[in-house]
Amino acid sequence: MGLINMNVWNRAAIAMLCWDLANNEDKLWIKWIHAYYLKGHNESSWMIRKIMHAKEIVDQVKLKEGKGMVKQIYDYLRGEQTKPKWKCLMFKNAASPKAIFTLWILLNKKLETVDRLAK
């Protein structure tokens, strides 16, 4: 349907945190992780381990500085996909939620029309 895949988006957000750890040491949470987990060699939490495992993704993606870094990683992980042509009909208009839902049902050929009800 052209919606965001939340599993892939989550992996992209975690990969961005890994990129932040490698490149930006001016943030407080990054300094804390470097001091407590990386240099202290303490037992790390599941969150830190997940961020560290995202290094493979960060190494593969060529990021451009600026905004939209999670989107850049998301687009890389998702690969080439064409956007549905009908997406602008559903999501970029001022229609009520009922009209959007009805259009969605119509596009999936599940709308109870007179001829379908006759069957």
Could you please describe the fold and organization of this structure?
- Helices cover 62% and strands 0% of the residues.
- It has 119 residues and is an all-alpha fold.
- It has two domains: 6-78, no CATH class; 87-118, no CATH class.
- The longest helix has 18 residues, at 6-23.
- It is elongated and about 70 Å long.
- The two termini are 28 Å apart.
- The mean pLDDT is 77.
Give the secondary structure arrangement, pairings included.
Elements: H1 6-23, H2 28-38, H3 46-53, H4 55-60, H5 69-78, H6 87-91, H7 97-107, H8 114-118
How many individual domains?
2
Mean pLDDT: 77
> So what's the overall shape?
elongated
- The parts where pLDDT drops under 50 for at least 5 residues are none
> Secondary-structure element sequence?
HHHHHHHH
Terminal Cα span: 28 Å
Strand content: under 5%
Rg value: 22 Å
* Total of helices: 8
Total number of strands? 0
**Share of helical residues:** 55-70%
Q: Helices and strands: which structural class?
A: mainly alpha
